[in-house]
Amino acid sequence: MPRAMTARDRKELQIIRATEKLVATRGFYGTRMDDIARAARLPRPNLYYYFPSKRQIYRRILTGLRADWIKAFEQISPDREPREAISDYIRVKIEYSRKHPVPSKIFAMEVIRGSDMLTEEENNQIKTLTEEKCAVIEHWMNEGKMDRLDPRHFFFLLWGATQYYADFEQQIKSILGVKRLTTAQFETGVETVTQVVLAGCGLDG
Fold first, then answer.
1. CA–CA gap between residue 14 and residue 147 (Å, rounded)
2. Half-sphere exposure of 75 (CA within 13 A, CB side)
3. Alpha carbon 56 to chain centroid distance?
4. ∠ CA 57-69-97 to the nearest 5 degrees?
5. How far apart are CA 54 and CA 19, in angstroms?
6. How far apart are CA 205 and CA 129, in angstroms?
7. What's the CA dihedral at 12, 18, 24, 29 to 10 degrees?
8. What stretches of the chain show up as alpha helix (H) in DSSP?
9. 200, exposed or middle or buried, with CB in 10 Å at 0-12, 13-18, 19+?
10. Averaged confidence pLDDT in the chain
11. Taking the C-alpha atoms of 83, 88, 91 and 97 in order, what is their torsion angle to the nearest 10 degrees?
């Protein structure tokens, strides 16, 4: 059972959420501690009480994003059937885009920048985990449970399709002619991406 949030936890979360919105629009280097203090409605000296630097706030954001990314990957498990596992993975990823569009944009920006704010160990862990999940796809293919394809490019496709709903949310809203995306529209996205992916894997039957 998770522990109850303390007053410090709530204040740190307030700072993190304010920083996320700034970084998503201005980038890491375009965001200053003064900007964060104003957005978090805190005097600048108080901000340093919780986080001694902008880099530390950003690192906390990335650590949370990395944990969420890893957790979503739990859906791809060798003890599951590929149809259900892949369908659930797509749903979890798009649902994350719906609920957390700002952190998703930050993660995309960090990857584009070369993930230099993540440590070598953290980047290697992501690579190792991806290889483990590719091995699960290989296992399913070897058992004849799905069509043969390149597992790495399979995941590249899934990441691009699911994170698009957060990273390019504005374009989607413009094309659909809406001010905000509804739960029903996200559900249509889940169903469409799932249908296309499963068909491409030979899992639509």
1. 46
2. 17
3. 20
4. 90
5. 9
6. 29
7. -80
8. 7-26, 33-39, 44-50, 54-72, 82-99, 101-112, 120-142, 151-167, 169-176, 183-200
9. middle
10. 91
11. -130
Please give the single-letter amino acid code of residue 185.
Answer: Q
The amino acid sitting at 198 is: L
Residue with tokens 């805190």, as numbered in its chain: 42
The set of residues, in sequence order, having a beta carbon less than 8 Å from that of 53 and lying 6+ positions away, is: 33
Pick from 93, 69, 105, 80: which is nearest to 193 by CA? 93
The tokens describing 71, both together, are: 């957790």
pTM confidence score:
0.87
Which residue is listed with tokens 């994003």? 65
How big is the chain by its Cα radius of gyration, in Å?
19
pLDDT tens digit sequence for 6-43: 988 899 999 999 999 999 888 888 999 999 999 999 99
- C-alpha distances (whole Å) from 107 to each of 17, 131, 184 are 14, 20, 25
Tokens 């993660």: give the residue. 107
- Residue 117: the pLDDT is 76
Place of tokens 């859906």: 75
Backbone angles phi, psi at 170, to 5 degrees: -65, -40
Q: How big is the chain, counted in residues?
A: 205
153: tokens are 């490019």
| In the block, residue with structure tokens 């996320």 | 20
Q: Which residues make Cβ contacts (< 8 Å) with residue 59, sequence separation at least 6?
A: 117
Query: What DSSP string describes 39-56?
Result: HTT--HHHHHHH-S-HHH
Closest by CA to 42, choosing from 75, 15, 77, 6, is 15
